[in-house]
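Weekly structure sync - notes
Attendees: PM, LS, DV (DV joined late)
Agenda: review two folding runs queued last week.

Item 1: First target. Sequence and structure tokens pasted below for the record.
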Amino acid sequence: MSNDDLYIGREQTLVKHIILKHYLERFAIIVGWHWDTLTYVDCFSGPWNVQSDDFKDSSFAIAIEQLRKARDVHKKRTGKTLKLRCFFLEKTPSAYTKLKQFADQITDVIIETKNKKLEDAIQDILKFAQEGGPTSFPFIFIDPTGWSGFALDPITPLLKLNPGEVLITFMTEHIRRFIEWPQKQNQESFIKLFGSSQFKDTLKGLEEKDREDAIVTAYSECVKRVGAFGYTSSAIVLHPEKNRTHFHLIYATRDNKGIKVFKEAENRAMSVMEKQRGEAQKREREERTGQTEIRLFSGTVTQDPSEYFRSLRERYVSSARAAVLALLQTKKQLAYDDAWSSAMTFPLTWESDLKYWIRDWELVGQLIIMGMKKRQHVPQLGKNNCLVWKESSTPSSKGQPS
């Protein structure tokens, strides 16, 4: 069975795993230059709906594979052997039994498993992280199937781990549907998720897509604040068969290098997502109609499924551009690193977009770039480049390269 076949019917999980895989691949190598121990914590390990006998389509197996690769890289390049430590948590007994059987077969990675709810295992996780010693770097993966079980107050100690980074699956589709249901128990669950009721104020009078963005932004800001993170970003994972968001992956770090790696992983996953969505939608139509669709020359008989994705990208690129422009017009002088951090907060927006806007503003005389070194043609992170805004003609409306 091919890797793609393992994810038929759960293509959204494939996208999530691609982002996790490519992020951890780079993260572990980068962190390994400065830290001796990598501590990975999976707070909702499962396994759930895994199709392979060796669990290779599970998040915990993917994590171990990428950590091992980083260890091999450092062993080859520097002779240093990275210490790998994993904490796998699962509350459901039947799933935990499979998780424990898998973990017991691993001999080259320190693994601790617990059959508990996350909110009951916070002290276990903190103890495990602390036992890694002062040269350990923790990465926390919180991957629930709903919006309960990871209330903000109980998980705050995990978010505060420093050094440390966190990746959270935010179940946008369910949260968007139920967040304003008036039942007391429902409202209390969301107040626990966000840590207060203030998130409600951001939703008033908003239409559906704006409302979704406001919900994700509000939660991201909560995570950023309580964890004292310097940077956050999010990636959209779309429903395989419908033109709507399934969930977001919300990432928080204290180093902009982490955002750079996360955005690269997001970018790589998006082409796979659109390919898989096209195949899932085709399969759904064939099952519904009982007819096999045929290709006509280089195209298909159906509408391009990527049209919705392109409209989303235009939306977020436009919003990111407006945010950077507002900073420029307010501050007049803006470090390129700060402009970059603002733009990369938005999903589906890449550094190439930012450089396109800068080039566009520069060409029409609205902006100059200070601090460029010899043979440096574009502004870069960590180079002390500064963007200086000049009051002139109305800014171009171009949002991204054609």
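Item 2: Second target, run right after the first with the same settings.
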Amino acid sequence: MNTLTICISVSVFILMMTIFYKPAKIADNNRKRLNQIKKSNEVQMDDALEQPFIQRIIIPFFIGMVKWVSNLLPKKKENSSHQKINQKLKLAGMSMTSSEFNAVRLIIGSCLFVGVIFLIAVVSLDSSAKLLIFILALLIALIGPNVFLMLKINRRQEEITNQLPDVMDLLCVSMEAGLGFDSALIKVGERLNGVLVYELNMVHTEISMGKPRRDALRSLAERNPVDELTTFVASLIQAEKLGIPIKNALVVQAQELRVKRRQRAEEKAMKAPVKMLIPLVMFVLPVLFIVLLGPTILQVIDQFGGI
């Protein structure tokens, strides 16, 4: 009787496991996935709330306004001006089209115009001061975005120039350790950060997708028209054509770039006194003369004025 009871119990257990195991497993997996989704949403919400107000509200609102205004602008065929703007945006590393850039200029000009109108209406100023403020706002609206774009291009190219010797040294060390050029590019992407590293990662991606190495390097030089980078790319292509070890070319190029960077720093140091002379003469020395000689001159004027 006990044996029969045990057999029946085991049979019922096996039957229950056979019937309900798969649905229970599916329900348990669904529950785990829902919990993971809830936790990820909570983490994303916490990260979003920790960001500053400008990043959470102002910047997304401005980006949405730029896209809306760019869609409202008339769509014209690509001409030379649009191509120049697109080229400058690429050189600046900005993922923006020419129509979006024009939309930014329009928004900035409109905001400045409204601000100037409000300032003129609220503050009582002379007509000449109002005209001067209006002309200044107009110049900022017209020239400001282009000046910002040129400064960003120059800053990006300078960062590439400064980072190039370190990248060459790491490439050389990686290749001396036995890695190939493509593997050395991966190592550079793991160890360093910056604009040049991002561009080299793009080169590695293009090579991985089947693009020839020479064409990928030429594209790198075309995207970033920096003299030092162009020389670096040309030396790599030349070394590959002639069968010269690339690491030897990298060592020579890195030494030359460090010498050029030191020479540029010395040149800037030599120019610093000349640049400091203008604010010194216009702003510092007149105030110093007023403080030191002003009381004496006033006393002399009082004494001789009474004679």
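Discussion on item 2: The CA atoms of residues 182 and 204 lie 7 Å apart.
Action: LS to circulate a short write-up before next sync.
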